[in-house]
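Support request from a user on the community tier.

User writes: "When I paste my C-alpha cells into the form, the page sometimes reloads and wipes my input. The last time it worked, I copied everything first. Here is what I submitted, just in case something in the input itself triggers the reload:"
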C-alpha cells in the first residue's frame, strides 16, 4: 500500500471513532477544481461508513451535519476522490483534481447508461463541428446537403427527421428547433454552437422526459456549455479544399465569486465541389457567472453567428452517368444561402434548504435566406425552378423550474415541477419562385407567423435500494396565428392542447446489472400555415413509445446496453420544399433494437460499438406500399481510441448505414455506405499538434439522397430517380493549438 493509501485507511479508522463519539453539528464549505479554481457542482460527500451526507450545488457549496470530528470523502466522476479529516469549522475549501474517466469506476446503480457513455465519448472523440457532437448519440446519423451552411438532415430511431421534426435540440436549455420555419418544421441549425464550448451532453431516445415538449418524440439532445476554460487557447486549422479555421478560447477574468469567458470562431472552406462553396462562418460567444451568495448563482450569456455559402445542391444520378456533369458538379450554380442568429440569455439558480429553484430567459433574433432548386426545369422550362425561402424571426423563451427532496414514511422522493413559455414572431415567412437569386418570378407564400407555446409539467422520482421510479406529466397549449399577405382571407387563428404522461422504471439488480422499462407520449406540432389553411387538422400529432432493456457492467471495464423499443406516430410529415407544404402521410409504426457497448481494454485504450436495427412502416397503406422513404433500417458505428496522460491521443472510427427505401414501394433505393475517420494529436507543454482525416479510405459514398421527379433543360420528359449530394472524399486537416 502506498503512503496515500495508508493515510486514507488511518483517516477512515480515526473518523469512524470520532463519528461514534461526537455530537452532530453543522458544517459548510466549497468544492472547486484544483487547476481552474472554479466551483464543481454535483459532488457527492460521503461519511466514512459510505453514507451520503450531502451534494454540492451549482456554486460548489455544501452544508450538512456531522460529528465534532469526522472523515469526509468527496467523489465526482472525472475527478480523483478527495478524503479530508475535518474538525468543526465552516468554509472548508476542498480542491479536486481532474482525471480521465475510467469505465472501471462506473457502477450501474449510481448513474444512467446515457450519462456515463456521453461523458466517456465526449472525452475520446474530437468534434469537428457542433453537428459532429450529435453523432455522440448512439444511433444518430446526420447528412449535409447544401454547402455546410444549411442545417443537417438527421436520422434516429427509424426516422428521417429532416432538419428536426422529431428530435428536440437545446443548448443550455435554449431551443434550437424553429417552429413553422420557412424551410421545414422543427428546423434545427446548430452551427451557432462552438463545439469546444460543450462540457456535457444530456440525451435520451424516446418521449420519456416531462421537461421536454414539442419535437421530443424520437428523442432529445441538450448541450451544456462550460463556465470556464482550464486553459486559454488559440487554435488554427488548415486543410484541403482551402479550409481554414481560427478559434480563440479565453477566460476574461477569474475571481472567487465571478468569472467571464469569451470564444471566437472563424471558418472558411470551398469544399470538394467543382463550384467553390465560398463557405464562411463567424461565431462569437461570451458568458458571465456570478455567485450572488452561497446559494444563488447568476449567469448571462450572449452569442452571435453568421454564415453564407454557395451550393451544388442535390444532383440527379442520370446527369452524372451520362457525363452532363461530374460527381461533384452542379445543375443550378445559384443555390446557396445566408443565415444569422443572435442569442441572449439570463438565468438564476437558487438553493433554499432541500429545494432548488431555477429561472431561465432566452431571446434569439434569427435571419434566414435559402435558394434551392430540387426539380431544375420541371415546372418552368425557361427560367428553371429555383425557389427562395426566407424569414426574420424573434423568439422569446421563459422557463421556471423547482426541484425538491422530501421524505414520506421514511422513503425519499424527488419532486420537480415547472412552467414553460415560448413566443415566436416571424416576419415575412416567404416562398418565392426566383431566377438567378435576384429576379422574383412568382410569390408563392408570404405572411407573418405568431406561435405561442405554454406548458406546465411535474415529475416525481423515488429511488430505493433496488427500484427507481420516475413518473411525469406535461400539459402543452399551442396557439397559431397567420397573417397571409398574399391571400388576406386565408389568415386566421387556431389552438390545440395536448397532455403527455411519462413513466420510467429501473430495477437495480446489483452494481453490475439493471433492467428498465420506459413508456411515454410525446408530440410534434404542425406548421402554422397548414393549421390555418385547414389542410391538416392533426395539429399536434402524438407519438406513443415503449422501451424495454438492460444495462450490464461486464467485468471491470465493459459497459453493455441492449434494448428493444416500439414507437407509434399518429402522423408522418414529409416536407415538399418547392411547393411550400408539408404532406401528412398518415400513421406509422416503428419497432427496433439498440445495442451499445463501451470497453476499456486497458488504461489508455478504449473502443465502442453501436448497432441500431429498425422496421418502420406506414399503418394506413397496403403491405407493398407501406415503406417509409429514407427511414434508416440498420445503422452501426464503431471506433477504437488511444488516450494517454503523456499527451498522445489517437482514434479510428467508422459509421455504416445500410441500403434503405427511397420511396413507398421500395422500387427506388438509397444506397448505403461505410465511412471511416481518423485522428491523432500530440501535446507537448503548451503546444498541441494534430491531424484529422475524414473518409480516410477515400470511400465513394452519397451523403444525402432523395427520390425526386425532375427534368433537365434538354429533356422532353421528367424522370423520378435518386438525387444526391456526394459525400466528402478523403479530407485531411492539420490542427495547431497553443495554450496560455
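"...and here is what came back when it finally went through:"
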Amino acid at each position: 500500500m502506498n503512503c496515500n493509501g495508508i493515510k486514507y485507511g488511518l483517516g477512515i479508522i480515526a473518523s469512524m471513532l470520532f463519528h461514534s463519539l461526537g455530537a452532530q453539528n453543522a458544517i459548510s464549505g466549497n468544492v472547486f477544481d484544483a487547476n481552474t479554481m472554479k466551483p464543481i457542482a454535483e459532488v457527492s460527500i460521503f461519511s466514512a461508513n459510505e453514507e451520503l451526507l450531502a451534494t454540492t450545488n451549482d456554486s460548489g457549496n455544501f452544508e450538512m451535519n456531522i460529528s465534532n470530528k469526522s472523515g469526509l470523502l468527496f467523489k465526482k466522476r472525472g475527478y480523483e476522490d478527495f478524503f479530508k479529516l475535518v474538525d468543526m469549522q465552516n468554509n472548508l475549501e476542498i480542491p479536486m483534481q481532474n482525471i480521465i474517466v475510467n469505465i472501471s469506476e462506473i457502477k450501474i446503480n449510481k448513474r444512467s447508461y446515457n450519462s456515463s457513455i456521453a461523458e466517456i465519448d465526449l472525452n475520446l472523440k474530437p468534434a469537428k463541428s457542433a453537428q459532429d457532437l450529435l453523432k455522440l448519440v448512439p444511433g444518430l446519423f446526420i447528412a449535409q446537403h447544401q454547402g455546410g451552411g444549411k442545417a443537417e438532415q438527421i436520422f434516429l430511431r427509424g426516422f428521417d427527421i429532416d432538419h428536426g421534426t422529431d428530435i428536440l435540440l437545446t443548448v443550455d436549455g435554449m431551443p434550437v428547433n424553429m417552429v413553422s420555419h420557412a424551410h421545414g418544421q422543427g428546423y434545427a441549425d446548430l452551427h451557432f454552437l462552438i463545439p469546444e464550448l460543450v462540457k456535457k451532453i444530456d440525451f435520451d431516445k424516446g418521449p420519456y422526459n416531462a421537461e421536454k415538449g414539442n419535437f421530443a418524440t424520437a428523442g432529445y439532445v441538450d448541450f451544456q456549455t462550460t463556465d470556464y476554460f482550464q486553459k486559454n487557447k488559440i487554435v488554427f486549422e488548415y486543410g484541403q479544399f482551402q479550409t481554414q479555421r481560427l478559434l480563440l478560447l479565453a477566460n476574461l477574468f477569474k475571481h472567487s465569486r465571478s468569472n467571464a469567458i469569451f470564444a471566437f470562431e472563424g471558418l472558411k472552406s470551398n469544399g470538394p465541389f467543382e463550384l467553390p462553396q465560398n463557405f464562411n462562418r463567424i461565431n462569437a460567444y461570451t458568458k458571465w457567472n456570478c455567485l450572488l451568495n452561497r446559494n444563488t448563482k447568476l449567469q448571462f450569456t450572449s452569442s452571435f453567428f453568421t454564415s453564407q455559402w454557395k451550393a451544388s445542391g442535390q444532383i440527379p444520378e442520370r446527369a452524372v452517368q451520362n457525363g452532363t456533369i461530374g460527381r461533384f458538379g452542379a445543375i443550378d450554380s445559384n443555390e446557396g444561402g445566408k443565415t444569422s442568429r443572435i442569442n441572449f440569455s439570463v438565468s438564476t439558480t437558487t438553493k433554499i434548504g432541500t429545494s432548488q429553484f431555477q429561472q431561465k430567459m432566452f431571446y434569439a433574433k434569427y435571419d434566414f435566406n435559402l435558394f434551392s432548386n430540387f426539380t431544375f426545369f420541371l415546372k418552368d422550362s425557361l427560367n428553371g425552378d429555383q425557389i427562395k425561402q426566407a424569414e426574420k424571426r424573434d423568439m422569446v423563451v421563459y422557463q421556471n423550474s423547482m426541484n425538491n427532496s422530501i421524505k414520506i414514511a421514511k422513503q425519499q422522493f424527488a419532486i420537480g415541477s415547472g412552467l414553460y413559455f415560448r413566443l415566436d414572431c416571424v416576419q415575412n415567412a416567404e416562398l418565392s419562385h426566383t431566377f438567378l437569386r435576384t429576379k422574383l418570378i412568382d410569390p408563392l407564400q408570404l405572411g407573418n407567423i405568431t406561435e405561442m407555446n405554454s406548458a406546465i409539467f411535474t415529475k416525481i422520482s423515488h429511488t430505493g435500494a433496488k427500484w427507481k421510479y420516475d413518473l411525469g406529466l406535461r400539459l402543452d397549449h399551442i396557439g397559431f396565428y397567420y397573417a397571409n399577405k398574399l391571400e388576406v382571407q386565408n389568415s386566421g387563428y387556431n389552438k390545440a392542447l395536448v397532455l403527455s404522461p411519462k413513466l420510467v422504471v429501473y430495477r437495480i439488480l446489483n452494481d453490475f446489472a439493471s433492467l428498465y422499462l420506459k413508456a411515454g407520449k410525446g408530440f410534434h406540432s404542425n406548421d402554422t400555415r397548414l393549421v390555418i389553411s385547414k389542410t391538416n387538422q392533426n395539429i399536434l400529432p402524438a407519438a406513443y413509445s415503449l422501451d424495454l432493456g438492460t444495462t450490464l457492467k461486464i467485468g471491470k471495464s465493459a459497459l453493455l446496453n441492449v434494448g428493444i423499443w416500439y414507437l407509434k406516430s399518429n402522423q408522418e410529415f414529409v416536407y415538399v420544399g418547392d411547393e411550400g407544404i408539408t404532406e401528412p402521410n398518415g400513421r406509422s409504426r416503428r419497432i427496433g433494437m439498440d445495442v451499445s457497448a463501451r470497453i476499456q481494454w486497458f488504461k489508455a485504450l478504449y473502443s465502442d460499438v453501436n448497432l441500431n436495427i429498425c422496421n418502420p412502416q406506414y399503418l394506413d397503406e397496403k403491405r407493398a406500399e407501406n415503406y417509409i422513404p429514407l427511414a434508416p433500417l440498420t445503422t452501426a458505428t464503431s471506433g477504437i481510441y488511444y488516450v494517454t496522460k503523456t499527451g498522445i491521443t489517437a482514434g479510428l472510427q467508422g459509421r455504416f448505414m445500410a441500403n434503405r427505401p427511397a420511396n413507398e414501394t421500395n422500387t427506388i433505393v438509397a444506397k448505403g455506405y461505410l465511412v471511416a475517420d481518423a485522428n491523432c494529436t500530440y501535446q507537448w507543454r503548451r503546444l498541441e499538434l494534430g491531424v484529422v482525416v475524414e473518409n480516410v479510405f477515400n470511400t465513394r459514398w452519397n451523403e444525402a439522397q432523395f427520390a425526386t421527379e425532375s427534368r433537365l433543360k434538354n429533356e422532353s420528359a421528367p424522370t423520378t430517380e435518386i438525387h444526391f449530394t456526394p459525400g466528402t472524399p478523403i479530407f485531411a486537416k492539420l490542427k495547431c493549438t497553443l495554450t496560455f
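Agent notes: The reload is a front-end session timeout and is unrelated to the input. The chain has five helices and 45 strands. Helices lie at 3-21, 113-124, 130-134, 317-321, 528-533. Escalated to web team.
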